[in-house]
């Protein structure tokens, strides 16, 4: 639609609008969209002397292409254009994240209030009525460019803040990871210290803890619980530090007096670990105190029965006995797989929680593979990732 008559254009008018202006090395960019060349040139002549870089587009498609190329700071948009009107162009611009914040001024001779409402609904930011007044045009442009500059400043500030937060978060993650690794290594070495008097139990804390974590996972525990059991279960026998060597290393069955002393190691372990607000250590206290309790209440040290025994203690009880049966000890040779299965199965519902036994027997090949793999881990050194959640996945 031609609207030149309403603006009162002539080549002389365009020349008379020119004003001298200072050159800006980084001028703000204004995109003028109108299907009439004289309308585009008129607005360009009004704005260019103010130091703006004015880019011209002849229709909606040309506008969208130039927006992608130059990322203007402001768009002056005619409404009545062929193929794609101004409403449609604005709707497309406002629907994209990268162009939604570019201010758009509708420049039109249309006076119907419904047209203005429609323009606001699709996302227009302001209006100018043809014929365009030069002072009003410059004032509206300055005002909206200030808003755009503020929005750009806030967007840049937000991006910088997000980058800073991400960097600090990564620093904290690394620091936490190092602290966590140091804590876990300390726990692991303390657990090894409890086993150090018996050279045949070096791999015990690795195999039983991996099997304990695996059983916890099979029983539907979440990853946090599984991880805590993996790292807390090695401390199950830490109370053996308080048991005399003559009892721990005895080559044969213990007498009643020796058994009474041996049965104190869960208490000693609980005392060593009690009072901590660190998850691994707190769970270690629970496991130490309860891994010798039995499902039927005949265990020690407190004679707990059934679900009175915390699940972690019930899980470790099965994993601990499984490993002990399969391993060589000063008082016995390792048992065969068949003997081990028979003893575990016989203890279902008396010594052990039936659900935990079923989890072990239903996944016996995986459990056996975990045990076999643990026997290959050097016991004289601590290798990175030897004791991790990845190790329980077979």
Model description:
The chain is of the alpha/beta class and 394 residues long. The protein has 2 domains: 4-162, Response regulator (Rossmann fold), CATH 3.40.50.2300; 196-392, Hypothetical protein af1432. Helix content is 55%, strand content 6%. The chain contains 17 helices and 5 strands. It has a 5-stranded parallel sheet, with helices on both faces. Strand 3, helix 5 and strand 4 (104-108) form a beta-alpha-beta unit. The radius of gyration is 39 Å and the shape is rod-shaped.
What is the strand and helix layout of this fold?
Layout: H1 4-7, H2 11-17, E1 29-33, H3 37-47, E2 53-57, H4 60-70, E3 74-78, H5 86-94, E4 104-108, H6 113-122, E5 126-129, H7 134-195, H8 204-218, H9 223-232, H10 245-248, H11 256-262, H12 265-273, H13 279-290, H14 311-326, H15 337-346, H16 354-362, H17 364-374
Parallel strand pairs: 1-2, 1-3, 3-4, 4-5
Helix pairs in contact: 2-3, 4-5, 8-9, 8-14, 8-17, 9-13, 12-13, 13-14, 14-15
CATH fold-level name of the largest domain? Hypothetical protein af1432
Strand order of the largest sheet: 2-1-3-4-5
Give the tally of β-strands: 5
Shape: rod-shaped
Q: Output the helix-strand order.
A: HHEHEHEHEHEHHHHHHHHHHH
Question: Radius of gyration from the CA trace?
Answer: 39 Å
Q: How many alpha or pi helices?
A: 17
Based on the coordinates given, report the CATH architecture of the largest domain. Answer: Orthogonal Bundle
Let me know the largest β-sheet. 5 strands, parallel
CATH superfamily of the largest domain: Hypothetical protein af1432
Q: How much strand content do the residues show?
A: 5-15%
On the 0-100 scale, what is the average pLDDT? 84
**Number of structural units classed as domains:** 2
| Helix fraction by DSSP (H/I, runs of at least 4) | 55-70%
Structural class: alpha/beta
Instruction: List low-confidence stretches.
Output: 1-22, 380-385
CATH class of the largest domain: Mainly Alpha
Distance between the termini: 73 Å
């Amino acid at each position: 639609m031609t609207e030149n008559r309403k603006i009162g254009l002539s080549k002389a008018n365009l020349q008379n609008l020119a004003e001298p202006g200072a050159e800006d090395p980084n001028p703000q960019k204004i995109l003028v969209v109108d299907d009439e060349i004289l309308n585009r040139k008129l607005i360009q002549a009004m704005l260019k002397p103010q130091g703006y870089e004015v880019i011209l587009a002849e229709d909606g498609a040309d506008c969208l292409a130039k927006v992608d190329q130059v990322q203007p700071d402001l768009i002056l948009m005619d409404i009545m254009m062929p193929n794609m009107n101004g409403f449609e162009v604005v709707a497309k611009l406002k629907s994209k994240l990268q162009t939604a914040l570019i201010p758009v001024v509708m420049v039109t001779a249309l006076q119907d209030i419904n047209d203005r409402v429609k323009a606001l609904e699709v996302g227009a930011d302001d209006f100018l009525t043809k014929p365009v007044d030069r002072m009003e045009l410059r004032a509206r442009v300055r005002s909206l460019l200030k808003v755009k500059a503020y929005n750009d400043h806030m967007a840049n500030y937000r991006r910088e803040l997000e980058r800073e937060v991400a960097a600090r978060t990564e620093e904290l993650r690394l620091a936490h990871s190092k602290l966590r690794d140091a804590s876990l290594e300390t726990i692991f070495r303390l657990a090894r210290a409890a086993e150090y008097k018996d050279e045949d139990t070096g791999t015990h804390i690795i195999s039983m803890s991996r099997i304990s974590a695996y059983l916890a996972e099979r029983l539907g525990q979440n990853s946090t619980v599984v991880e805590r059991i993996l790292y807390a279960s090695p401390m199950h026998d830490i109370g053996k530090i308080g048991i005399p060597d003559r009892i721990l290393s005895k080559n044969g069955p213990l007498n009643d007096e020796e058994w009474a002393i041996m049965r104190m190691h869960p208490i000693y372990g609980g005392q060593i670990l009690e009072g901590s607000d660190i998850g691994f250590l707190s769970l270690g206290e629970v496991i130490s105190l309860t891994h010798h309790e039995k499902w039927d209440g005949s265990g020690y040290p407190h004679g707990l029965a059934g679900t009175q025994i915390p699940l972690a203690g019930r899980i470790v009880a099965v994993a601990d006995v499984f490993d002990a049966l399969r391993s060589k000890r000063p008082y016995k040779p390792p048992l065969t797989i068949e003997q081990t299965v028979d003893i575990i199965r016989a203890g279902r519902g008396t010594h052990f929680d039936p659900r935990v036994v079923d989890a072990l027997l239903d996944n016996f090949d995986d459990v056996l593979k975990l045990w076999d793999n643990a026997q290959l881990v050097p016991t004289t050194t601590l290798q990175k990732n030897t004791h991790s959640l990845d190790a329980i996945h077979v």
